[in-house]
Amino acid sequence: MPEIKTFADDLTLARAVAGDWLALLGKNSGPHLAALSGGGIAKTLFTAVADLARASGAFVGNVHFFWADERCVPPNDSQSNFRLAEENLFRPMRIAPDRIHRLKGELAPEAAVAQASGEIRRIAPQDAAGIPVLDLIFLGIGPDGHTASLMPNARLAVLESREPYVHVDNSPKPPPNRISMTYPVLAAARQVWVLVTGEGKTEALRESLRPDGKTPLARVLQSRAEIRIYSGVGAP
Length: 236
Fold this sequence. Notes:
This protein is α/β, with parallel strands linked by helices. The protein has one domain: Rossmann fold (3-Layer(aba) Sandwich). It is 36% helix and 17% strand. Helix 1 crosses helix 2 and helix 7 packs parallel to helix 8. It is globular, with a radius of gyration of 16 Å.
């Protein structure tokens, strides 16, 4: 069963996640490979991490930042997950550019996927099946149970991909073109933390937690022995 923590509001949740992450970083001075997500809680989380790191003096210079998904838009677009992190986390914390491995949504999707898959393979260790292993992946969940940009209507090529990243060309939530981490990478990560906030998520979370759940997040849960859920929508 997943470890589930519940919170009364988004700010309390974000501060708890920030504290847990910085505590995790403090236990290991070696490289730490993390993948970020967007979503409604992202700005609050990034601000909480930056504020707590400055206040505590936590060291974050060993973190390599990847993304769980990105929209196929330029990095300065208002819909860009990178821009959200750049403005609220990287600039305030003065993260070195060589630690930021963004998904290049301004490229043709096939080129962006090839670049991203090559980059993560260059930096991350790989398991016996050749899947890159990250230390921590942050995920969210949509009202339809999607996570990253793995959607309920995913094509077979997305469901079966063994590459680190894949092009999603039919997202029901605009924009339709996205780049997403694949299920094998989410299964291989040392830790996955799911942040559940916002309207309309309670039933999606309940369905995802069912042993026979059919949502994309359910598939991730079923692929892993351990996962942590931070819920701001109450107990599932």
